[in-house]
Write a structure and sequence with these properties.
By secondary structure, this protein is of the alpha+beta class. Helix content is 31%, strand content 25%. It contains 42 helices and 61 strands. The strands form 15 sheets. Strands 1, 2, 31, 32, 33, 34, 35 and 36 form an eight-stranded antiparallel beta sheet that branches. The chain has a six-stranded mixed beta sheet with strand order 18-17-22-21-20-19, with no helix packed on it. Helix 11 runs antiparallel to helix 12 and helix 30 crosses helix 39. The two termini are 83 Å apart.
Length: 1469
């Protein structure tokens, strides 16, 4: 409602006013302020804040009559009465004074050069400037007894004296002694009807505080003993026999009182620092507690005890907020029903934490200015820096600025959809989401922005306005400054309104109005100032489409009117439509095309609004027609309703709203977006009354226009919907997707939070019974103050006060102490706040066993991006309340909440996220309803939610023994490896190693660095160690280079094959022993077993040699063996890179087992597919035609296959074999340059083949789908089949018998489509790794994919120069042979390169012939290796798919061995 902004302004009190400030008091219209000190009375003007006149009493007057104490204004502001400490009342008379040369003003406004006047100077005569006032001392009256308090009642002063009397004085100083009232004789009772009244027994009792209220018909009083009550004037006269007191029950420590006439509330301040607000019962007249003003102990611990009793209470002019001050310092601002809006005791204010110990800041008096934009405060600071001396007092007059919501004075429908705050000279608007909505709308309608904004005010359902969820968090305010041209003569701003689009604004001040368009950034004012001064907006203003509707008073004709001004036209009465009304209009509102007006005679009038575009009018010059662009509108009175019997006074009506809501609700499928006006909802002093149309008078056989008959239907008697209501929101549009939210009524109830009047739609299969509830009122608490409701987004928008503390040490001015109140206050700002309310509604429905309706609402909001967060909030709040309850709950709500969340796919995620955000002590209560964490973990694995399952490991680690969490972590590790979740797998490995040293039967403990990387950051990778992982992704590190010489030396050092077989035989025996005693004695595992089975001692020196660590590495090796056996080298590289797997060392041990390649063709296809590497393509027709015609290629190709083999063999035996380059001067195998004739012939062939290659590439790009390599393969196969069908030729060696096959291969390589650059980098890195590990078969295949002849040469050299098993060489030789056959029939693009490396294939043939035929041993069976069943026996579990497939288990066994055969001969397979 009200929010402070900026620093408080310090008003300079003249130095002659010595003695300190006592009080500050405003007159009736809050334009003049009386500032009272001990010896002076000063009159101040509100704007600008200047002192007009001051009267200082003489020393003799102060000594004779006493110092000034309290004051009171006469209602017409012509007199001021001041009480003194010795029982005198001083009367001062005020009158306007005409000064020579200044006129009636002591200060006049002038326009300087910076603000040139665009309006005539005649506007000064309307009162701009500070009036000149003459103040004269009139008389003094002595009152017998001490004056306790005084109050102005109509034209008299009522003074409470210390001797227990109420004296009545006239403003001329005459005391009416016969009308004195003895306070002890006033009877007091609990109510005015049933209770028995009794007089006050204490003689001489008096009133310490008294405040008069004409609407309540009495006085709110405070007695010296702390009791309080309301003294009613039964006959409307203040006489002995007409006074009846009513006690405020339960109060015995009251210090002050304040009355709110608009809401009929009485606020009492107490000595314990609390405030209690009472309301008057209309039936019995008793005082009933409405709410309490108490600071939260959570946010302000012991604040009330530290601040002392409440010293001052002041309601704002509109009655919407209450300012409270404490005796020991500090202040707070509350909404009308107890919502805390601002408090100076918080940690963000810094008032007490920094200054209370040394400086006591007190507010002695305070008063609100006109429209509540400023709070005047007479402050005093006691400096206690000197302990031995008396504290010195410093007085200061402060003015704290406020901005307020437009709903306080102008609760029209358009203001309900925006955050719209108004200040005295500026407007605060938050429409970020609304701007995006308008842009979406314009993009679909293909209209200019200005035109769309002009027409977007239409509230018809054909133009729905969507809301964007992503913009809910936008906290930026758009500040619109009101022009000084209008504000200078029409301050203050009383009403402000914004249209539905958020682009058009209208304001109304003391006279006239003005409006602003954001798309033009211009204000429109009245061109004729006389028209502006002749109208005063009295009942508010609103927007209807592109028209401004205002309720005003016509000063020229002395009548009340309704006026409509078009936005597009000039602001002039000539373009306005006016409608006379019988009485003053207090409120107005809109519902679609209907205007609701509430008048001072307690009548409501309904008008129909009709837009009429200007008709074409003929011109005077002839028959041509000119169409006017100025639209117009008209009002038609439809109906009048009298509320005189239901409301105590017209001022107590807060808002009037016309809605389509009814107590009966139809089916959700029958609701229409076009809803008619069905009910009137009136807020009377916080009570919500609903008047529905009486449809019992209509019959089903009526004919004619049904809509007309509905408009004239009468309204039934009102029913009370709710009490303590500050604001209400309802939607004029119905959403078919969220009918529950759009058909609801939302209420803001202050400290009680919010209430929603929700419809209960019957289900399709449910029979509608008449005794079932059609609607339900659900209350729920909010942590923000609501100002707008986004119905379809389930979000409440609000504003909150925030502070910024500044240090004044560097900018302190001379003579200003750091302990002054202005330095103690921080800088105040207004923040936009948001809160989701959906979980509150679901919770209240489930509490009332309305789960079906809760499920309907939740399912309709599934599309919200924060729906999972809503479920977490729902579960978390109920868990915190029930798990920490001090008493047992017979019917807990948590099981129903859990079952409700189980209906959504986010169930598993919601449970674990809620558990992670609560204390461990509450987990047992949560999982007693949600189920066992182990069962939930298994559900996550079955559904594939591995990240969610990893969060459950934290729960298991704290609730279960270490063996259980290790077992489930192993299961999750297998699943993450199968799914390729490398980051998750890496975290799981760290988690398993962290809990590996624990006792399996140890109790649960607090988790340390387990799973999720964002919550548990990963340690940095080791800086040294063996060869790093595969350079994939963000986890890749720089690759350490290894030379081939180091690799060959390492191979030689490993010894012969017999020694390796002998070591492997010992490792099998050691492994079998480990399988039996792994958990009992893990340290008995020999080092050779750990090294041979993949436990890399080089990277695990800091870990203990435990069986748990051993089997973690076994699991990783098993998955690596699975990837390598399937030929998925790319996944193997990513696996090694993310999990820091020592790939080279492991490949060295697996080169004769998992690293063997049995099918070269299939493996080659797999490499092409995984690395997105297209198959090579060559134009076969050109090569064949030129080969048969005896071209230059044939003439130069005289070398035989043997000569090519000789050249290649020379390269193998140590001669130079340079790589094929892309230039013209290519090297031949023997190091000589190609002849000029060869180059010319190749140029001729290249031109023709390049064109065909381009055509082939174009064909590939057209046929390429998601997988580029597959498309390329299909293209090459298609080209091969076409050639075979057309010419029926076979690709025999005679066609490729060319002398320079390396040049032809270079040409083929140049024309072929290569893969992505990053894939080429990965392939070359894998080639280097395979060469280092001695996996020559995979190195050969990678070289073939890259078409790297040097790589093939290095592979052959390694096979010939090292002790390589003969079966490996044999498989490479046979694989190349199969590839040549495959290339002949399926992929001719590989044929040139295979011919280039044919010499290397013959070298492999020679190696096999020299060493003899290899003795190939079959693949070992599962009986000779360690199976996954052994891992389950030791507490570790792998992937379920590995155990279900015997064939995969045969190839992916943990440790594969072979026993010696034939006299110790053993071949590794």
């Amino acid at each position: 409602m009200y929010f402070p902004v900026g620093w408080p302004k310090a008003l300079a009190v003249p130095p002659e006013d010595i003695g300190g400030l006592h009080s500050v008091l405003c007159n009736r219209d809050r334009v003049l302020f009386a500032v009272i000190t001990e010896r002076s009375l000063a009159i101040w003007y509100c704007r600008p804040c200047v002192q007009i006149v001051c009267h200082c009493r003489s020393e003799e007057s102060v000594r004779t009559l006493g110092t000034n104490q309290k004051a009171a204004w006469r209602p017409d502001s012509t007199s001021v009465a001041v009480t003194t400490s010795q029982g005198h009342i001083l009367f001062y008379h005020l009158e306007r004074e005409v000064l020579a040369g200044h006129g009636a003003n002591c200060y006049n406004q002038t326009r300087g050069g910076r603000f040139p006047s665009m309006r005539s100077s005649s506007s000064m005569e309307y009162g701009e400037g500070v009036p000149s006032i003459r103040m004269t001392f009139f008389t003094s009256v002595q009152i017998i007894g001490k004056i306790e308090c005084l109050v102005c009642v109509r034209d008299e002063l009522l003074v409470a004296t210390g001797n227990g009397m109420l004296q009545r004085l006239r403003w001329d100083g005459v005391v009416n002694g016969k009308t004195g009232i003895n306070i002890a004789s006033i009877p007091f009772s609990i109510d005015l009807q049933h209770s028995r009244a009794s007089t006050l027994d204490t003689p001489g009792i008096t009133f310490t505080h008294i405040e008069y209220s004409g609407l309540l018909g009495g006085f709110a009083v405070v007695l010296p003993d702390g009791r309080a009550g309301l003294v009613n004037t039964l006959a409307g006269k203040v006489e002995n026999n007409s006074l009846q007191g009513v006690w405020a029950q339960g109060l015995e420590n009251v210090t002050c009182v304040a009355v709110n006439n608009r809401y009929r509330l009485i606020a009492f301040g107490c000595t314990d620092g609390l405030g209690v607000v009472y309301t008057v019962d209309d039936m019995t007249g008793a005082l009933q507690v409405s709410h309490r003003l108490e600071l939260s102990t959570k946010d302000y611990p012991d604040a009330c005890m530290a601040c002392g009793p409440v010293s001052r209470l002041r309601w704002s002019p509109d009655g919407c907020v209450l300012a409270m001050a404490w005796d020991r310092g500090g202040m707070a601002v509350w909404s009308v029903y107890g919502a805390l809006l601002m408090c100076t005791l918080g940690a963000d204010q810094g008032l007490y934490q920094e200054s209370l110990r040394l400086h006591l800041f007190r507010i002695k008096s305070m008063c609100w200015s006109m429209e509540g934009y400023q709070l005047w405060m007479a402050c005093e600071t006691l400096d206690r820096t000197e302990v031995m001396e008396l504290p010195t007092a410093t007085s200061e007059l402060l003015q704290l600025q406020f901005v307020k919501s437009t709903l306080t004075v102008n609760p029209c429908a358009t203001n309900h959809e925006h955050l719209f705050l108004q200040g005295e000279d500026k407007l605060f608007i938050n429409t970020g989401d609304l701007v995006m909505k308008q842009q979406w709308k314009d993009a679909n309608m293909n209209r200019p922005l200005r035109e769309s904004i002009t027409r977007s005010g239409d509230s018809s359902p054909q133009k729905p306005v969507r809301q964007s969820n992503i913009l809910v968090g936008n906290k930026q305010w758009l500040v619109v400054q009101i022009p000084i041209t209008y504000l200078g003569s029409n301050w203050p701003i009383r009403y402000a309104a914004i249209d539905r689009t958020g682009f058009c604004i209208a304001v109304a001040g003391r006279c006239g109005l003005a409006h602003y368009a954001m798309f033009t950034r211009k204000w429109k004012l009245f061109g004729n100032e006389t028209q502006e001064k002749d109208m005063v907006v009295t009942g508010g203003l609103t927007w209807w489409r592109d028209f401004i509707i205002c309720a005003c008073y016509n000063l020229n004709e002395n009548r009340d009117e309704l006026r409509m001004y078009p936005r597009a036209s000039n602001l002039d009465n000539a373009f306005a439509y006016s409608c006379k009304v019988p009485s003053q209009i207090l409120l107005l509102n809109l519902f679609r095309d209907m205007l609701v007006v509430f008048c001072a005679d307690c009548h409501i009038a309904l008008y129909s609004i009709e837009r009429r575009d200007a008709n074409p009018t003929p011109t005077c010059g002839g028959p041509s027609v000119v169409e006017s662009s100025d639209p117009s509108a008209s009002l038609t009175l439809l109906q009048e309703i009298s509320l005189a019997s239901y409301i105590p006074h017209a001022v107590t009506v807060i808002s009037v709203t016309l809605t389509s809501l009814r107590t009966e609700t139809a089916s959700s499928k029958q609701t229409s977006s076009r809803r008619e006006a069905e009910s009137l909802i009136v807020n009377v002093a916080g009570r919500l009354l609903m008047l529905q149309r009486d449809r019992s008078m209509t019959s089903g056989k009526e004919n004619g226009d049904v809509r007309k008959k509905e408009k004239i239907l009468p309204f039934c008697a009102p029913v009370v919907l709710a009490s303590c209501v500050e604001n209400m929101w309802s939607s004029s549009r119905s959403s078919p997707d969220k009918v529950h939210l759009s058909e609801a009524l939302w209420l803001g109830c202050g400290a009680s939070g919010m209430k929603v009047w929700l419809p209960l739609f019957p289900r399709n299969d449910e029979k509608r019974h008449s005794f079932l509830s059609k609607r339900i009122m659900l209350p729920f608490q909010l942590s923000i103050y609501p100002l707008a409701v986004l119905f379809e987004d389930a979000v409440v928008l609000g504003a909150a006060n925030d502070t910024m503390k500044y240090d004044f040490q560097d900018c302190s001015s001379p003579g200003v102490s750091d302990s002054t109140p202005t330095r103690l206050f921080p800088f105040n700002v207004v923040d936009r706040t948001t809160q989701v309310y959906l979980h509150h509604i679901v919770r209240e429905l489930l509490r009332r066993n309305l789960g079906s309706h809760a499920l309907q609402i939740a399912k309709s909001c599934r599309s919200l991006p924060y729906f999972s967060h809503v479920l977490e909030l729902l579960l978390h709040q109920v868990l915190e309340e029930e798990a920490t309850a001090h008493e047992p709950i017979p019917d807990p709500l948590l099981p129903r909440i859990v079952d409700f969340i189980r209906e959504f796919p986010e169930f598993l995620q919601t449970i674990v996220h809620c558990a992670r955000k609560t204390e461990i002590a509450l987990w047992s209560y949560l999982f007693a309803s949600a189920g066992s964490p182990k069962d939930l973990f298994e559900q996550c694995l079955q559904s594939g939610s591995l990240e969610t399952a990893s969060s459950y490991l934290i729960i298991l680690q704290n609730l279960e023994p270490a063996a259980v969490s290790r077992q489930h972590a192993t299961l999750l590790l297998d699943a993450s490896l199968d799914k390729g979740k490398w980051e998750l797998a890496k975290d799981l490995v760290r988690f398993l190693r962290a809990i590996g040293n624990e006792d399996p039967e140890s109790p649960p403990r607090t988790p340390v660095n387990p799973i999720n990387a964002p919550i548990y950051p990963l340690p940095p990778p080791p800086q040294d160690g063996p060869f790093p992982g595969f350079a994939f992704g963000s986890q890749a590190r720089p690759v350490r280079s290894y030379s081939m010489g180091e690799n060959l030396a390492g191979v030689r050092e490993r010894g012969s094959a017999k020694e390796r077989d002998r070591e492997r035989h010992h490792s099998v025996q050691a492994t079998s022993t480990t399988n039996k005693k792994a958990t009992a004695a893990p340290r008995d595992i020999p080092p050779r077993v750990r090294a041979d089975c993949g436990v890399f001692t080089g990277t695990l020196k800091h870990l203990e040699d435990t069986a748990e660590h051993f089997f973690i590495d076994v699991i990783l090796q098993r998955h690596a063996r699975k990837l390598l056996g399937a030929g998925r080298l790319r996944e193997l590289g990513s696996f090694a890179a993310h999990l820091n797997f020592e790939l080279i060392g492991w490949l060295q041990k697996e080169r004769s087992r998992a690293a063997r390649v049995d099918d070269f063709v299939t493996s080659l296809h797999t490499l092409h597919r995984d690395f997105q590497w297209p198959m090579p393509v060559i134009a076969l027709s050109q090569v064949i035609s030129r080969s048969n015609s005896g071209s230059k290629i044939g003439s130069v190709g005289e070398r035989s296959r043997s000569s090519s083999y000789d050249a290649l063999e020379i390269g193998v035996n140590g001669m130079t074999l340079n790589d094929i380059s892309e230039g013209q001067n290519r090297l031949r195998p023997n190091g000589m340059y190609a002849s000029p004739s060869l180059r010319s012939s190749m140029d001729l062939l290249c031109d023709e083949l390049r064109q065909e290659a381009m055509d082939s590439r174009q064909f590939n790009s057209n046929q390429k789908g998601d997988n580029g390599s597959t498309a390329a393969t299909e293209t090459s196969e298609m080209s091969a089949s076409i050639v075979a069908d057309d010419s029926e030729l076979t690709l025999d060696d005679s066609m490729w018998n060319l002398a320079n096959l390396d040049e032809l291969e270079a040409l083929s390589q140049e024309l072929a489509c290569r893969g992505p650059p990053h894939c080429e980098t990965q392939l070359r890195y894998l080639l280097h790794v395979m060469m280092e590990a001695g996996c020559l078969e995979w190195a050969m295949l990678i070289s073939l994919v890259l078409r790297d002849s040097m790589g093939v040469t290095r592979v052959v050299n390694t096979a010939s120069l090292t002790d390589m098993p003969i079966d490996v060489v044999g498989r490479m030789r046979e694989g190349l042979s199969y590839l040549e056959l495959w290339a002949d029939t399926e992929c001719p693009g590989y044929k040139p390169f295979l011919l280039v490396i044919r010499g290397q294939a013959e070298v492999l043939t020679g190696i096999v012939d020299i060493q003899g035929s290899p003795q190939v041993t079959p693949i070992p069976t599962p009986e000779s290796s360690l199976t996954s069943a052994d891992f389950h026996a030791l507490g570790f579990h792998g992937n379920a798919s590995d155990t279900e497939n015997p064939e995969s288990e045969e190839q992916q066994s943990v440790i594969e061995t072979e026993l010696p055969q034939d006299g110790g001969q053993c071949a590794l397979s």
